[in-house]
Specification:
The protein is built from 20 helices and 18 strands. With 499 residues, the chain is α/β, with parallel strands linked by helices. It folds into two domains: 4-222, Rossmann fold; 228-496, Ribokinase (UDP-N-acetylmuramoyl-L-alanine:D-glutamate ligase, 3-Layer(aba) Sandwich), CATH 3.40.1190. It has an eleven-stranded mixed sheet, with helices on both faces. It has a seven-stranded parallel sheet with strand order 4-3-2-5-6-7-8, with helices on one face. Helix 4 (88-99) links the parallel strand 3 (77-82) and strand 4. Helix 19 (458-476) packs across helix 20 (490-496). The longest helix is centred in the first third of the chain and has 19 residues, at 26-44. (6S)-NADPHX binds at residues 59-63, 127-133, 138, 160, 262, 325, 374, 442.
């Protein structure tokens, strides 16, 4: 079943209706939520581990109160540190804990020394739906917890959403719990899947609580996750009579002196992901270096003084990738302008994006356009700051797509993909911090070009390419995230494109 993403308000507005349609009461729903969290605790560390549960005033705190009772019955040593419960369900759950003579301490007095006495900390303070900065007391509690986590071997579980995290955008308000594990309920929330939200959420688990199918009948999804089955479906086995002409001719333009490695990585990625032929157009002084680095690349030089000569070199190509190691010289500017005005499918990365941000007059173009910006490049394209892009990555990728009438992937943790006609956004939940290294983006642009050349549908290219890149990064980083090189992705990538 396709993994769907819903905004927080959609879940809040419809979860009780979905539960009621199935004869599940709110109290039963809370019980199921707590049981799913207990299962996560038991997988992490068996009883009689010491657990501190931090409970806030609302139903998220209620989940914590119920979990306290369940965990205690399962043999854990449990202490609840709480503020006054405010909702009816939270009050009932707190009363049940008190009836069990459970230990309770005030949240306002939380300190790092006390936290250090426990093995597991459960964050049930705020949950989803936060739309303003945390109150000072909760800011202090979050800061104390995060500080203690740095100095002691604490494992932190957040219930539904790390407290302080805006669950639709993934931004802290202004601080959020840095969880090791988050169990979120009923549906994936956007903010847990991208940008800073990936850091604060830690490992994510979806607990459907037995009502997700009923909920999905009531709401339209905001986004969908990219999954392996989808990728595999678009990479069928090759025909036994295949030849190189049937698998696309990719042209990569860039590689100025000093940045030749970028275009080599992009070319290698295009080859390793299945392109039939890969040509490189570069400046004369870079030709020999690039040709020596990878003999399978067909390297041509151009001075870019003659548009007709450039287009002659590109004759027979199925797609152009412009940007890896391109620079922003007059040579690069002329090539970018000509290619934007051509009828060739075009992928812009790196300096191709930077040139576009300075020359919107070169648009619109009639042929398909793919953009692959990281947040800094996206900020230049949108004439805003990187911080503004990261504050709402979903809004940023949608604005990029509509402004430039392009297929867009906004790279980073939880890469986001859309295009002007998309019914919903796509989210890549896979990936690794190992990809945070120069050259990783060049590999992605090469994969994108290769898939276009191989004839994948325009709207399919970026979801498949992004997933392949992300998962290849995971596999390459098995020996360690630090020190993984972009070229380490090629072995895993070759396996992934041959499912």
């Amino acid at each position: 079943m396709q993994q769907l993403v819903f905004r927080t308000k959609q879940v809040r507005d419809r979860e009780l209706e979905a539960a009621k349609n199935l004869g599940v009461s709110p109290a039963q729903l809370m019980q199921r939520a707590a049981q799913s969290c207990l299962a996560a605790l038991e997988r992490q560390q068996p009883a009689p581990a010491r657990i501190m549960i931090l409970c806030g005033p609302g139903n998220n705190g209620g989940d914590g109160w119920v979990l306290a009772r369940l965990a205690s019955c399962a043999g854990y040593q449990v202490t609840v540190v709480a503020s006054e419960p405010k909702t009816e369900l939270a009050k009932q759950a707190a009363d049940a804990w008190h009836d069990q003579q459970g230990q309770v301490e005030p949240l306002a007095q939380l300190d790092r020394t006390h936290l250090a006495e426990y093995d597991i900390i459960v964050d049930a303070m705020m949950g989803t739906g936060l739309t303003r900065d945390l109150d000072p007391m909760y800011q202090r509690a979050v800061h104390t917890l995060n500080d203690a986590k740095q100095f002691h071997k604490l494992w932190v579980l957040s219930i539904d959403c790390p407290s302080g995290l805006q669950s639709d955008t993934g931004t802290p308000c202004p601080i959020a719990v840095e969880a090791d594990y988050t169990v979120t309920f009923i549906a994936w929330k956007p903010g847990l899947l991208t940008g800073q939200g990936c850091h604060y959420s830690g490992r994510l688990e979806l607990a459907e609580l037995g009502i997700s199918a009923a909920f999905r009948q009531l709401e339209r999804p905001f986004a969908t996750l990219i999954e392996q089955e989808e990728v595999t479906r678009h990479l069928p086995p090759r025909h036994r009579s295949s030849h190189k002409g049937r698998h696309g001719h990719v042209a990569i333009v860039g590689g100025r002196l000093g940045l030749t490695g970028a275009v080599v990585l992009a070319g290698q990625a295009a080859l390793r992901s299945g392109a039939g032929k890969v040509s490189v157009l570069t400046q004369p002084e870079s030709q020999a270096t690039i040709a020596a680095a990878q003999p399978e690349l067909m390297v041509q030089q151009t001075t870019a003084d003659d548009p007709a000569a450039v287009m002659q070199l590109l004759q027979g190509c199925d797609v152009v990738v412009l940007g890896p190691g391109l620079g922003t010289s007059s040579w690069a500017q002329r090539l970018c302008e000509w290619l934007l005005h051509s009828d060739l499918p075009l992928v812009l990365d790196a300096d191709g994006l930077n040139l576009l941000s300075d020359h919107n007059e070169w648009l619109p173009r009639q042929a398909p356009l793919w953009l692959t910006p990281h947040p800094g490049e996206a900020a230049r394209l949108l004439n805003c700051t990187t911080k503004q892009v990261e504050q709402d990555r979903y809004a940023a990728v949608e604005e990029l797509s509509h402004r430039y009438q392009a297929f867009v992937v906004l790279k980073g943790a939880g890469s986001l993909i859309t295009h002007p006609e998309a019914a919903r956004l796509r989210v890549c939940k896979r990936g690794s911090p190992a990809l945070a290294v120069g050259g990783a983006g060049d590999v992605l642009s090469g994969i994108v070009g290769s898939l276009i050349g191989q004839g994948l549908a325009a709207e399919t290219v970026l979801p498949v390419a992004t997933w392949l890149h992300a998962v290849a990064g995971e596999h390459a980083a098995i020996a360690g995230e630090r020190g993984t090189l972009p070229s380490d992705l090629f072995g895993p990538l070759r396996k992934l494109v041959n499912p």
